[in-house]
Design a protein that fits this description.
The chain is α+β, with helices and mostly antiparallel strands and 182 residues long. It has one domain: JHP933, nucleotidyltransferase-like core domain (Nuclear Transport Factor 2, Chain: A, Roll), CATH 3.10.450.620. It has five helices and seven strands. The protein starts with 15 loop residues before the first helix and ends in a 17-residue tail after the last helix.
């Protein structure tokens, strides 16, 4: 589970380059993956929302891939310059067959940016289509915060729990990205 947020930092935004690099690789993988974690909340949020750091996590990209599509997804990642990165989770027994891939880009501003993709396999995963993106269905996604994802303090996660408990669909709801202090 994620650590409590420092509310003094609630106005901080993700840098545009982080979002642009994520979208760039997700566009190439779009037809073969189901997006999970912070990027799923990103696509379930209102279009053109502010990219608050505490609304949803963009530190990495979590994807699920049907085993029949693993080869093509791995090929695309390698063609795009991603490399397999070994983690402490690689040798643990798992139904998801976890892998991590990373790529380092150098930006024109002289800054190094690492893009991390956490890659899970699944034959059966409840997903929905949101604005052309396959994302993990909200209730299923919330269930991952006990074992796969860790940022359960993000505003989107907290508001999705609240909305679903009220029988409301969180998809497209402005509360997913609303600063709770405003």
């Amino acid at each position: 589970m994620g650590a409590n947020h420092n509310i003094k930092r609630y106005g901080e935004l993700w840098p545009n380059y982080r979002i642009e690099l994520g979208i760039k690789i997700l566009e190439k993988l779009k037809q073969w993956v189901i997006i999970s974690g912070g990027w799923a909340w990103h696509f379930m949020s209102e279009m053109n929302h502010k990219e608050y750091k505490h609304a949803h996590d963009h530190k990495d990209i979590d994807i699920f891939v049907n085993p029949k599509n693993v080869g093509i997804v791995m090929q695309i990642l390698l063609e795009e310059g991603f490399e397999k990165v070994w983690t402490r989770y690689d040798h643990l027994p798992s139904n998801e067959n976890f892998r991590r891939y990373e790529k380092v880009d150098w930006l024109d501003i002289g800054r190094e940016v690492r893009t991390t993709i956490d890659f899970f396999e699944s034959k059966t995963l409840k997903s929905i289509q949101v604005n052309g993106w396959n994302v993990v269905e909200p209730e299923t996604l919330l269930s991952f915060y006990s074992n796969i994802h860790s940022s359960d303090k993000c505003w989107a996660v907290q508001k999705a729990v609240q909305l679903l408990s009220q029988g409301k669909n969180p998809v497209g709801n402005p509360l997913l990205t609303k600063n709770p202090l405003e």
